[in-house]
Amino acid sequence: MKSRTARIAFASFIGTAIEFYDFYIYGMAAALAIGPVFFPGSDPAAQTLNAFLTFGIAFVARPLGAALFGHFGDRIGRKATLVASLLIMGVSTLLIGLLPGYDTWGLWAPVLLCLLRFGQGVGLGGEWAGAALLATENAPPDRRGWFGMFPQLGPPAGFLAATGSFLLLAAVLSDAQFRNWGWRIPFLFSAVLIVVGLYVRLRLTETPAFAAMLQQRQRLRLPLLALLRWHVRPLLLGALSMVVCYALFYLSTVFALSYGTTTLGIPRQRFLGMLCVAVVFMAAAIPLAAAAGDRWGRRPVLLAAGWAALLSGFLLSPMLGSGSPWQMTVFLSLELFLMGAAFAPMGALLPELFPAEVRYTGAGAAYNLGGILGASFAPYLAQQLVDRGGLDWVGGYVSAAAAVSLGAVLMMRETRNTRF
Predict the structure, then answer these.
(1) What region, left, alpha or beta, does residue 412 occupy, with left being phi > 0 and alpha being psi -120 to 50 degrees?
(2) Residue 326: exposed, middle, or buried by beta-carbon count in 10 A (0-12, 13-18, 19+)?
(3) Interatomic CA distance for residues 12 and 152, integer angstroms
(4) What is the DSSP secondary structure assignment for residue 415, as one 8-state letter?
(5) φ, ψ dihedrals at 202, nearest 5°
(6) Is the distance from CB of 151 to CB of 345 less than 8 angstroms?
(7) Residues 42-45: contacts with CB within 8 Å, 24+ apart?
(8) Within 10 A of 319 (CB to CB), how many other CB atoms are there?
(9) Residue 419 within a domain
(10) What pLDDT sits at residue 42?
(11) Is 75 exposed, middle or buried (CB count within 10 Å of its CB: 0-12, 13-18, 19+)?
(12) How far apart are CA 109 and CA 101, in angstroms?
């Protein structure tokens, strides 16, 4: 039993870690190299904005991936769907690493880049919900928050792996080498990780909840239609509750990385090291918040994290804009700690909002719709805000995102004692 539990926990963790590694390396490459490679022009600011726009394409694709994989996850099972999502994400990432730039393929280069980024979004859209269901549908009723923590640990692990790869490249390559070809290496290395993830997932069995649903013949012909007809309120509240998680993360990583290395002139290697420190705080917050969610409920944890995030927006301008590596590291660590605290309960809460027959579709749709609202164009909008009004406006953006999620959580019922 213990070996099976460990295998389930590892499988739910490793898949999200790999897929988020793939996702994050694009965000870092967008901040550091993709603009000049795929978009012509002499204005670095325009190139950065275009790169951030391609970053946002994947978030638009994620709800489509959630609907597609949710349909099959609720119809044919969690296992096969998780394998397919990992394959689509991996192939898209590998091809980005092989794609020639604008100088070689002209307009086709950014067009194909956008298509492959769309493919990344589709794959990731099907990943998280399946991993969360794999964990929570195998969990004891009083420990769903703890089991739901394992897919939530995938993003910080993936981010550390992604950041570590870029740090290593910064140490061994010149800036010119990195911009010309070095940024492609993390994308190519993804192929190795995908093989590991597929090996682990192909050894899984179906979850008890899905097996029981098969026995009772409760499968729906169109889970998405049932979701939109009967479960719109939990879908919207779940999505809005995720907004602060995404805003905190992508403003503290993608936008902050771009702002710190360009506007403030901080060396890329130093800033990536600061982010590595900050992400450790995110990883530390996840088990603490997950355990608290099992003990006191999901809502109290989310409300506490939301209020703290709202207040943290007022610290963004003085601390991130200080130019002091120490102050900036403290601020980034605070933001990502709060992100982890708000993110951890979602591994249990979003599946708990929906019955088994639409659970994959509902949890995935809420998670990824929250991504559109909270993160898809967050780096782009933050860049526009800082250009027009300064960092104070970006801080206001953080506080507004927190207020949106707070409102959703206040309108939401407690789900800790929901029966699976």
Answers:
(1) beta
(2) exposed
(3) 9
(4) -
(5) -70, -15
(6) no
(7) 44/262, 45/387
(8) 21
(9) no
(10) 58
(11) middle
(12) 6
- Looking at the domain assignment, is residue 77 inside a domain? yes
User: Can you spell out the DSSP letters for 9-42?
Assistant: HHHHHHHHHHHHHHHHHHHHHHHHTHHHHHS-SS
Q: The tokens of 300 are what?
A: 């109290």
Domain of residue 243 covers 2-410
Rounded distance between C-alpha atoms, residue 220 and residue 253, angstroms: 40
Which parts of 83-128 are beta strand (E)?
Answer: none
3-state helix, strand, coil in the chain (%, to 5): 85, 0, 15
Q: How far apart are the first and last CA of the chain?
A: 20
61: domain CATH number is 1.20.1250.20
Burial of 43 (0-12, 13-18, 19+ CB in 10 A): exposed
Residue 420 lies in a domain: no
Cβ atoms within 10 Å of 349's Cβ, excluding its own: 32
Instruction: Report whether 397 contacts 334 (CB < 8 A).
Output: no
- Whether residue 418 lies inside any domain: the answer is no
CA angle 283, 51, 155 (to 5 degrees): 15
Lowest-confidence region among 43-47, 77-81, 211-215, 226-230: 43-47
User: In the predicted model, what is the mean pLDDT of residues 118-127?
Assistant: 91
Looking at residue 169, what is its pLDDT? Answer: 92
Helix (H, G, I), strand (E, B) or coil at 138: coil
- How many residues in the chain? 420
**Residue given tokens 């506490």 in the structure block:** 304
CA 301 to chain centre: 20
Q: pLDDT at residue 2 above 70? A: no
And the tokens for 104?
A: 């070689």
With a cut of 90, say whether residue 346 has pLDDT above it.
yes
Distance CA 374, CA 398 (A): 10
- Count structural domains, the chain: 1
Measured CA to CA, the distance from residue 340 to residue 305 in angstroms comes to 9
Q: State pTM to two decimals.
A: 0.89
CA distance 420 to 169: 46
The amino acid occupying position 101 is G
